[in-house]
Amino acid sequence: MELKEEGARTGDGPAAEVPPLRRIVVESETVPIRVGDYAGPPDPEYGKEPWQLAAGLDGEPTWIEERMRTEGLSIAYGDKRAVKDVSIEVNSGEVLALIGPSGCGKTTLLRSLNRLVELTPAAKRTGRIILDDQDVDSFDVTHLRSRVGMLFQQPNPFPMSIFDNVAYGLRERGSKKPRRRQLEPIVVDALERAGLWDEVSSNLNHPALALSGGQQQRLCIARSLAVSPEVLLLDEPCSALDPISTGIIEETIVELRSEVAIVIVTHNLQQAARIADRVAFMYLGDMVESGPAGQVFGAPREARTQEYVGGGFG
Amino acid sequence: MNIEVRTAAPGPRPKPGRRARPEHHTGWSIGDRVGLAAAWAAGISLCVVAAVIVLFMAWKGLQFLHLDMLTSSPEASMDQSKSGGFLDPLVGTLLLTVIGIAIAVPVGVGIAVWLTEYGKPAGLARLVESGVEVVAGTPSIVLAIFGLLVFQQGFMGIFSFTAAGGAVFGRSFIAAGSMMALIALPLVIGSTREALNSIPRHVREASYALGKDRASTIRRVLLPSARSGIATGATLGMGRICGDTAIVVVLLGASMQTTPESGPLGLLRGTGSTLTSYVYNNSPAGEGNAPDKAYAAAFVLLMIVLLLNFVVGLIGKRNKPQWN
Ligand SMILES: Nc1ncnc2c1ncn2[C@@H]1O[C@H](COP(=O)(O)OP(=O)(O)OP(=O)(O)O)[C@@H](O)[C@H]1O
Ligand SMILES: [Mg+2]
Known about the structure:
The complex is a heterodimer of chains A (314) and B (324).
Chain A: E1 2-6, E2 23-27, E3 65-77, E4 80-92, E5 95-99, H1 106-113, E6 123-131, E7 134-135, H2 141-147, E8 148-151, H3 162-167, H4 180-193, H5 197-200, H6 213-226, E9 231-235, H7 243-256, E10 261-265, H8 269-275, E11 278-283, E12 286-292, H9 293-298, H10 303-309
Parallel strand pairs in A: 5-10, 5-11, 8-9, 9-10
Antiparallel strand pairs in A: 1-2, 3-4, 3-6, 6-7, 11-12
Chain B: H1 30-64, H2 87-118, H3 122-137, H4 140-151, H5 173-197, H6 201-209, H7 214-225, H8 227-243, H9 246-251, H10 266-269, H11 275-282, H12 291-317
Helix pairs in contact in B: 1-12, 2-5, 2-8, 2-11, 3-5, 4-5, 5-8, 6-7, 8-12, 11-12
The structure holds adenosine-5'-triphosphate and magnesium ion.
Magnesium ion binds next to helix 1 of chain A.
């Protein structure tokens, strides 16, 4: 598979105020494309039809269930509107990839979902964000963040042992201090789900910052999983990692999607094609188009999406 | 490809066909060369001065230092063979350092955390910053006189000896230690702030993203991450406290022997001396006129301070969390 970058187009004609798009062309015959074709019985509980995924990393069918959605969400930093009137659903059972050129508001949208954007004093939000039919503003922010976990671009374990990193979110939750023996099963389970257990099982007391970058990032996944979130937000989680670590993380993400709703921001369209079930394309703060990965990459409805994803898929 | 390397300084252009080599200072003007030579010479001479200080003090100190000087108290005698050792000043130095640091570290870390993690209102933060700078820039003799003023107030009587007429003496380990804390405080604040500032923002956000509030993020992530910075500041502060003389002379009484007051905290309320005041008193400049003892004590003091500097270097290299 080969990625080619065509030079940035210079704005000609009316496109003068719109920054040029970088066009990425994929030259390959074996790009895995998922098509949202139906299989299996409808889910009676939610009245929705599950999708079976075409050849992906695991190809396991999953049940789709809405966890979060935004309604007319806009975020502005002072006068600058970074996210404009975005309405989108986040479902468990699938991976949603946010793609778009740099500065289009992907990170801002992602950080608004766990209200981390509130740490930026200039940021103002309008519109609603709903988690399991409840407005996120009605939650205590610490409670919201334990239900909506986040992974960052740079691996950032805390300077403590591997065990303590994973147990970090569990401690000081109640009035009673949990004992290590009580925490251990949860920590082990989180490490297993993050695909790190086999590598660290014998040295849980070693400092986390001595792990490799890829292991650190998986430790951060385990740290988020330990508090059993319903939604996991990933902001370019592989951009600081080597291809092998990236592959392992991608496998982990695909495995997790049956239990946790996953939103991933990525600049790597091939990565989006590999792991995403649904893709949303953003441009200058607008949600231009969202839909099944196969459709967005294979037959985009909007010209701007077409321009960004290129014609190289399929 | 023909790459020509030119140094920034103006100078004769290299002849065509001949490549200029940066390691040959062909393009350097006379002024630049003189400047470079002067900088080089200054660096070398500083090394020489440092070596001479250490070697001279080692030669003089080891010549007169006996182990029993470290274990015996000073005695009042003009005869150097009978004037005892400097156990009391040695213990005084250690005690004063411990008191000063025990006050400076919690206060300094608290101020540094407030400045870096809260810092609001901004005006107050700037005021605190200038306050720290003022304290850092105040000569220790001024701090000492100020301390005497404070600790001689009637309500400060519990911290030192009160004479029969009710006059408060104002001189004690606590009084001197408090002012010593002010000397160490800017160093603790400075290196703690530096350590906190070097922690990437996303590390804090990772803690918030796990549902932690700011207080527990500070306690569980930021302070442990800043541990080596705090230790560096504390050690630098200890070095400064060990070396200060003015506060000891004015506020500790600089008595020959440690003289505790009665009561449970009598030692802290009493007076004493440190190696610096001992060296001063025994040197030809002071009244003691026991230069042998002064050299021996000065050597011990120098070793303590050099050891602290060495520890600073060790801490700086270790335990500092590195995020890429
Ligand atoms: N803290 C901030 N203050 C002011 N403006 C900001 C801030 N953070 C982001 N912005 C602006 O908001 C817009 C969206 O930024 P955002 O980081 O969400 O983009 P992004 O799609 O994640 O970009 P990238 O792909 O480069 O990470 C940008 O124009 C950016 O300049
Ligand atoms: Mg971003």
